Amino acid sequence: MRNRFWLFTILGTVCLSLNISCSDILNFKLPNSVLAANISWPTAVFDGTLTKTIEVATITGTLSQDGTSLATVVNDSVDGASSALLSGKVSQLKNSGDLRITLTDTQGEETTYRCGEVLLANNDKNPIDISLKGYSYITSMPSSASFSQGDTIDISIGAYPSTAKVYFTTDGEVPTTASTLYTGPITIDETTTVKAVAVCDGYVDSAISTGIIKENSGVSVEIPPLDTTPSIVTNDYKTFAAVLTGVTRTAAIGYTWYLFHSGDETRIITTEVGYITFDNLEPSESYRLVVKATNGSQNFNKSQTLVIPETSGAGK
Cβ–Cβ contacts within 10 Å for residue 253, how many? Predict the structure, then answer.
């Protein structure tokens, strides 16, 4: 009798400390962790480009830890509200997990918010509060830049909100939270493709921003906006001139380039793309460039005079 008394005393102490019933232990039931959260969200958010209205039908919580899925919890009776309870058991006994919340609107469009690490409980009586705010986005980052051969250039990146972390790559790969964390201007010393993403708890991850940073061996190329007629854009460096034409709204299928210079034979080059690079140009000399863009029976001509600078200079 005394041994049974001590056994129940020990069981009672364990149960109290774990906040579970003794019957669970006696019936060999292991407790589950529980995700219990009051989720709230704005009725409209700005994604960096436009404001989106949110009318939510379903919320889904995806919980994981170290890449292993712990639970998917769904509340499909939101009915356009701006907050809802999300509660469900987790497959394992865990203290915390990384949570992502997906809001599905009445049109079936999904928006996923990063919520970071959240605490789990052993019941749903005291749910935590999670406020979803909006979109993270890259606020400043050059989509293109150039620098002279042998020099370097510093690339700065800004993000919203101010608490967002920016992760970037310089090898063309899509950045994730496992990529390099941005802590200050990135120094580039060769042609590089920079990709960046902004992430912040309570926000949707930003779209990937891409910047193409080119090292010029005297060449810089800039694509002008679409227009009804071709336009020539030039950036001159040392003895080089890089020139391209804007593609017409009815895209051209061929280009013929004529470069005229006093005392030289006219250079004639045909390309399938709307840009070209001429080298071996003389500093301080004047050249005339004519481009003919052809599309079926239509021809568009553009002419421009180029003056090669005496020394290298900054381009557009």
Answer: 10
